[in-house]
């Protein structure tokens, strides 16, 4: 079990570092956020399978799917409106 814990921790921090460092494109930010959420889902599933309560993991998976759909919807609307997915072009929206 210690190897699995170490694997979850390392992959979480790798995803977090990618989320913090590659924030030029909105798509890369959304992909790294989905990687983080997938890692958290696997951690929740493994830890709750020991207890025998997997209902929370299904609720979390539902929220994960909603977050991904909202992110892609925002990405599509911003690309259609501005023509790219750079964060630099969205900085002009602030007054």
UniProtKB/TrEMBL annotation:
Its main location: membrane. It is a multi-pass membrane protein. The chain crosses the membrane at residues 6-23, 30-48, 54-79. GO terms for molecular function: NADH dehydrogenase (ubiquinone) activity. One of its GO terms (cellular component) is membrane. It holds the Pfam family Oxidored_q2. It is found in: Membrane. InterPro entries: NUOK/Mnh_C1-like (IPR039428). Keywords: Membrane, Mitochondrion, NAD, Translocase, Transmembrane, Transmembrane helix. It catalyses: a ubiquinone + NADH + 5 H(+)(in) = a ubiquinol + NAD(+) + 4 H(+)(out). Belongs to the complex I subunit 4L family. This is NADH-ubiquinone oxidoreductase chain 4L. It comes from Myrmecophilus manni (Mann's ant cricket).
């Amino acid at each position: 079990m210690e190897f699995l814990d170490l694997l979850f921790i390392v992959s979480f921090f790798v995803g977090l570092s990618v989320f913090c460092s590659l924030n030029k494109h909105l798509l890369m930010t959304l992909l790294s956020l989905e990687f983080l959420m997938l890692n958290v889902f696997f951690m929740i599933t493994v830890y709750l399978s020991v207890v025998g309560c997997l209902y929370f993991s299904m609720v979390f998976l539902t929220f994960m799917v909603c977050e991904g759909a909202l992110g892609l919807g925002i990405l599509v609307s911003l690309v259609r409106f501005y023509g790219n997915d750079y964060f630099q072009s969205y900085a002009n929206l602030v007054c």
